[in-house]
Amino acid sequence: MPRLQLSTWQEVDAYLLTRRDIIMPIGSTEQHGPNGLIGTDAICPEIIANGVAEKSGVMVGPTLSIGMAQHHMAFAGTITYRPQVLIETIKDVVASLTKHGFERIYFLNGHGGNIATITAAFSEIYTEASLKGSNRPFRLKLQSWFMGRRFRALSKELYGDSEGSHATPSEVSLSYYAFPEHVKRAEMSPKIAPRGVIRDADDYRRQFPDGRIGSDPSLSTVEHGERIYLASVEDVTEDLKAFVDEA
């Protein structure tokens, strides 16, 4: 399983002789309710990316573990970038990788709040390339690990209406599978959290005082996490292959 962080520069050069794709896991450092790990949104794409690498041989870059999480800042432990900082970070990562010869950069995302900002970063990158007249043959892809058909079917089977949209039992289960020694237990009241619109941090805390949105993560288990991991690895492997094989 080639990992950029565990490779020498010579090994990266050798990899680039035969393939030009890389997965960049990207997530967030933010609260995940009463029993969810603050690192959940970075842990999940990282473990799935490593699983995809075991199946396909793709190189995995270092996880970008801080994202756009301002709406969680009323909960201790959350760390956020401003949107423009995250945009500039992604631009520099892409510029670095393409300089070395990577041509297919697949950002595997674990945080819904990142999507708009990553998409804006891609727009800036492509615009700058167009205005400079660059003919460098790179392509970018953003995919969230929780969007695949196998995962979505499994989530519905396991949790139904208890899945919700933040501090979900599926993401908590996956993080428990990655770190079973850090399983947490907590009472949920109400059992399924309310739903609503996300605004700024103080408004979020008022509406969702324990951090959950529409979910019941007390259902989370390591065993569920393993099933979710296997389903999502299949989803992402399939999606990555389609991206790399595009003409």
Name the beta content range. 5-15%
Q: Structural class, please? A: alpha/beta
Indicate the low-confidence ranges by residue numbers.
Answer: none
- Sheet of most strands: 4 strands, parallel
Radius of gyration, CA atoms, in whole angstroms: 18 Å
Helix content: 40-55%
Would you identify the CATH architecture? 3-Layer(aba) Sandwich
How would you describe the oligomerization state of the chains in this entry? single chain
Q: How do the helices and strands follow one another from N- to C-terminus? A: HEHEHEHEHHHH
What is the number of independent domains?
A: 1
Q: What name is given to the CATH topology?
A: Rossmann fold
Give the arrangement of secondary structure elements:
Blueprint: H1 9-16, E1 21-26, H2 40-56, E2 59-60, H3 83-100, E3 104-109, H4 115-132, E4 139-144, H5 149-159, H6 169-178, H7 201-207, H8 222-245
Parallel strand pairs: 1-2, 1-3, 3-4
